[in-house]
Amino acid sequence: MGYTFWEGILVCNRHMTCNKPATTISDQLIQLKTRGLIIADEPLAACFLSNTSYYRLAGYWWPMQADKINHLFKPNSKFEDVIALYEFDSALRLLLFNVIERIEIALRSKMIYHLSHEHGPWWFQDSNLFINSREHIKTLAHIEDELQRSKDIFIKDHFKRYKNDQRFPPSWKTLEITSFGSLSKLYGNLKPSVKSKDIIAWEFKTVNHTFLPSWLQSIAQIRNICAHHGRLWNKNLPGRPHLLSRPPAPWLASIPPVNEHHMLYVHACCMKYLLNVINPKNQYCQEMSELLDEYPSVDQQALGFPAKWKTEPLWLM
């Protein structure tokens, strides 16, 4: 049976055994330089590696490698460019997190208002309103965990005051501490016969309930990446938003092909569309433009941004 070594992993056709030892920062610098990465300021690089792990940075220098089996870098690849990419990605997460916050609060407010008036304060516990009962049970379990972990005074006071009431607190309390992920799952799982589902979609100008759930799911996934400090640059995002063909508000004149919908640009456009409804005077375009201008070495195409994205009707709002 033949065996080969690849990045410290003993590989055969039946099993893989990792035998790679821990390395010092000095050894990491030597390895990177041996592979062709230019490190002009070694103390700065050592400081950066001591505060940001080698494998966390690997996602940023991966595209710089010409030989990804032996991890050899392309000519003129610089550690300073790795740092710039990393800092750009950090700033990008903060920008998107602020945008998503506005969308999350708006979604929460609309769900509380419309569904509580249509089906009462405890609509979210009514299994008759949901398509998939098993998924509904799972979502309620997550919400219950969130309630149990909550330190908010209004939640603690509710359980103390109504200790004999076995129900969750009413929606205007419970959904205030419910995560965006759980909110998007509740909304997406609502039956089409629930009128509020279409009302909420229409208020977001996404026409009806067939489009908005996929947008919310994608945005919730990006929110989790942001919250856990994950990489967004050059990321194959899991969500695929279902795009409107004729949206009632300004949209894209040139929609990226489906094989590019895993990139950030399409998702950023969905956020911009919703934000234009929530806050028409938002500065999202200006902030994104300034961020990209601040880091000219960043490849915008790795995010899916076309050269003339700022001239699209959506981004002129």
UniProtKB/TrEMBL annotation:
It comes from the Bacteria. Pfam families: Abi_2. This is Abi family protein. It comes from Chitinophaga defluvii.
